[in-house]
User: Which sequence fits this backbone?
């Protein structure tokens, strides 16, 4: 990981120097701008020895160049007699350099992936370890390669650990084999994926790993207390963790609503020609029923509203479902557990296409403009599902439901009802404008490449 950061730092600095040489700045101005560039990138945390995902790196790049542009305009341009021209050149330079930086980030990871991948051993072989493996495999940008999982069940040195072992995609080893694997693969990082570890066992593990590896990372059991907004504080020598959950200031609401209005207008503009296309496609398939259907959903603060969607099922879908459940106990059980059917025969051919491309919820931009929904938010749940939401209900309904959100971008039809609730609870506790932007980008990617989970 250190190598890739050094490579990127060197390449990006060389590109910045080359661009500064091309632009018509004097020598003093070029030196100042280069110093500002280096300072702004380092101050936001770029090129550090830590694991980042692609969206996190994009955020750092954006913040770094935003800080650079602000400082450059403030300290350089306004002091020049030809301030307007200087501002134009600096803005153009910043844009080109940022684009080059994003390209370097992308292609450096592709070119140097094998040489710069960090080999990791995970302590734990249960559900959390499998989730960690899924995340690392889905995010190649993190340059993390799990070489082995350590099973501590029945280990005499670490008694009391009884994880339900899940089949993993890397070898499952005992602690006695740790040194062998760490040496063979040059492991310098260990991830502890046993959230239920007691403090004494965790301290014992840290003592064992001290001197063997450079980095130890721990996935804690947050119990809905820790969020990504949590921070470690030094309270006069006491280690204190400060956390906030689901807190949106008045200006957060204002910004989010402003984005919703502009996004809703843009969505409705796209919706108009899409209606014509869907109508033509439906008629071509012999379906002359209504394009839209409305359904009561749970809105903010539990208030019900009518949501607009493209009709993707047969017209009498609810009656067909009741009949199917009455005739087939397996279908009833599947629906009662997951609140959906994996291969739902009620879906029309046109509806399958709309779901694959994540277009079926486009009419909800009308709800966004009406203020009943947001672009990004929890899933709009059915009123009959309220009783099954349990302790999640109050947190989830404190936010306006979204056209898209965590559920739609993290598996959609491949996740069960409980997992959907967990994802929406996660969104409530970790909300930020950047999270909204990330989910929006992922939704657009699903629309472009198609959503496999909808198939």
Assistant:
């Amino acid at each position: 990981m250190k190598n890739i950061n050094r490579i990127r730092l060197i390449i990006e600095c060389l590109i910045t120097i080359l661009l500064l040489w091309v632009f018509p700045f004097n020598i003093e101005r070029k030196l100042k701008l280069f110093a500002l560039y280096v300072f702004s990138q380092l101050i936001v945390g770029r090129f550090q020895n830590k694991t980042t995902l692609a969206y996190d790196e994009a955020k750092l790049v954006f913040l770094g160049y935003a800080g650079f542009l602000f400082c450059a305009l403030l300290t350089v341009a306004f002091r020049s007699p030809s301030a307007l021209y200087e501002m134009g050149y600096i803005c153009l330079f910043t844009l080109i350099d940022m684009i080059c930086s994003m390209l370097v980030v992308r292609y450096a990871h592709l070119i140097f992936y094998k040489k710069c991948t960090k080999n990791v051993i995970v302590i734990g072989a249960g559900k959390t370890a499998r989730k960690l493996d899924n995340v690392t495999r889905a995010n190649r940008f993190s340059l993390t390669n799990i070489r082995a999982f350590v099973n501590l069940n029945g280990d005499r040195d670490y008694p009391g650990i009884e994880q339900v072992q899940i089949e993993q995609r890397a070898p499952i080893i005992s602690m006695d084999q740790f040194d062998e694997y760490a040496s063979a693969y040059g492991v310098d990082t260990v991830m502890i994926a046993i959230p239920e570890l007691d403090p004494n066992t965790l301290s014992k593990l840290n003592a064992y790993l001290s001197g063997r590896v450079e980095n130890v990372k721990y996935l804690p059991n947050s119990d809905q207390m820790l969020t990504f907004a949590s921070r470690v504080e030094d309270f006069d020598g006491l280690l204190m963790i400060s956390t906030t959950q689901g807190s949106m200031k008045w200006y957060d609401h204002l910004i989010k609503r402003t984005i919703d209005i502009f996004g809703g207008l843009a969505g409705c503009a796209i919706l108009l020609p899409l209606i014509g296309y869907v109508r033509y496609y439906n008629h071509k398939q012999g379906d002359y029923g209504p394009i839209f259907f409305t359904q009561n959903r749970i809105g903010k603060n539990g208030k019900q509203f009518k949501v607009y969607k493209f009709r993707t099922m047969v017209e009498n879908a609810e009656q067909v479902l009741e009949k199917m459940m009455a005739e087939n106990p397996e279908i009833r059980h599947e629906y009662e557990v997951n609140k959906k059917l994996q291969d739902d025969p009620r879906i029309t051919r046109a509806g399958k296409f709309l779901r694959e491309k994540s277009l079926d919820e486009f009419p909800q931009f009308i709800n966004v403009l009406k203020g009943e929904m947001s672009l990004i938010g929890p899933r709009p749940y059915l009123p009959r599902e309220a009783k099954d939401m349990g302790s999640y209900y109050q947190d989830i309904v404190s936010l306006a439901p979204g056209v898209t959100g965590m559920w739609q971008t993290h598996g959609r039809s491949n996740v069960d009802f409980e997992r959907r609730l967990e994802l929406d609870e996660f969104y409530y506790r970790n909300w930020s404008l950047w999270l909204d932007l990330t989910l929006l980008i992922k939704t657009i990617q699903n629309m472009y490449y198609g959503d496999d989970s909808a198939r």
Summary: The mean pLDDT is 84. DSSP finds 17 helices and eleven strands in the chain. The first helix runs from residue 2 to 22.
